[in-house]
Design the sequence.
């Protein structure tokens, strides 16, 4: 996969994710499911994956800075 194809794939994936999350209603978000030996509702899971993504963004920022590359602004 070329860099351009990868960037398009990621862009499409985020666009799809935002669309799906935007379609969730309060009833759906409060629905519980089994996760890692416990129970979470969808709202809690969304918070979990946001935290997980933030962790990886932090790792990437460190990697870029160690390679003398100015990382893009995290919050625009």
Sequence:
């Amino acid at each position: 996969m070329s860099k351009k194809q990868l960037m398009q794939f990621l862009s499409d994936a985020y666009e799809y994710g935002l669309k799906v999350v935007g379609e969730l209603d309060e009833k759906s978000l409060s629905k519980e499911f089994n996760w890692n030996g416990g129970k979470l509702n969808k709202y809690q899971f969304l918070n979990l994956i946001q935290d997980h993504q933030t962790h990886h963004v932090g790792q990437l920022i460190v990697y870029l800075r160690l390679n003398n590359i100015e990382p893009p602004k995290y919050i625009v």
The longest strand covers residues 32-35. The chain has a mean pLDDT of 92. DSSP finds three helices and two strands in the chain. Residues 42-66 form the longest helix (25 residues).
